[in-house]
């Protein structure tokens, strides 16, 4: 599989959402790419820091282990919106309550800078299970506030309910809409609340006009960039496995959409990621 590699960025940036522990057999075959190789490839093109996100208990623990000995990494831990209903259906209420407790305990680790990804996903979970997602989202919001960590939100086909729950519960000090999928009007609403808005490779797709309009109007101090690797690979590699070393394509697309040069775009992205997660 031939993958087009980008030139190195003029200034370093941070991949604010990545899954080094996940592989997709359709994309990668039967083996997981070596995390150290991926980290080194990213650094070579100017992506020198990565936020590794754990989406269930196993991946949360693995993410913490990965970051212990890799200075480029910090961690977010949480139950993906589709994970909470799965646990409840397959293991029962006690198991789900225990999972919340384990996430809360892991979130206290200094290497963990974020709670999530959490939120709502109406694409994959049946409507009758949405209340479980709502409960999980509220529990994660509470954990983020208790431990003073950034809240990382997954929002798929659920914009209004995500916003409503955040406002009802009272948002933590720092909130990130990971892989933002709304339009310019939603971006404006998020910006009014001071929430960070993170763009993945989807913003490079020619069909993503609403998303591109949103990317153009996000304030300089609230925009972030990510891969969500191994998914959402930017053009010109759409449909192939994603990784942090491909993020320069997305950074350059954002710079073009916002009418700034690459170095200025990278500077905003770097500073915002440090404010969102703290320096490391």
CATH class: Alpha Beta
Would you give the CATH topology?
TIM Barrel
Structural class: alpha/beta
CATH architectural type: Alpha-Beta Barrel
Q: What order do the helices and strands follow?
A: EHHEHEHHEHEHEHEHEHH
Spans with pLDDT under 50 lasting ≥5 residues? none
Task: Please give the largest β-sheet.
Answer: 8 strands, parallel
Query: Which bin fits the share of residues in helices?
Result: 40-55%
Oligomer: single chain
Instruction: Give the termini distance in whole angstroms.
Output: 34 Å
Structure summary, number of beta strands: 8
CATH superfamily: Metal-dependent hydrolases
How confident overall, as mean pLDDT? Answer: 95
Number of domains: 1
Walk me through the structure.
The chain has 280 residues and is an alpha/beta fold. It has one domain (13-277): Metal-dependent hydrolases (TIM Barrel, Alpha-Beta Barrel). The protein is 45% helix and 16% strand. It has helices spanning 25-28, 35-44, 57-68, 83-91, 93-106, 130-147, 159-169, 184-193, 209-217, 247-258, 262-277; strands spanning 13-18, 47-54, 73-77, 112-121, 150-156, 175-177, 196-199, 223-225. It has an eight-stranded parallel β-sheet with strand order 1-2-3-4-5-6-7-8. Strand 6 (175-177), helix 8 (184-193) and strand 7 (196-199) form a beta-alpha-beta unit. Helix 4 crosses helix 5 (93-106), helix 8 packs parallel to helix 9 (209-217) and helix 10 (247-258) crosses helix 11 (262-277). It is globular and about 50 Å long. The two termini are 34 Å apart. The mean pLDDT is 95.
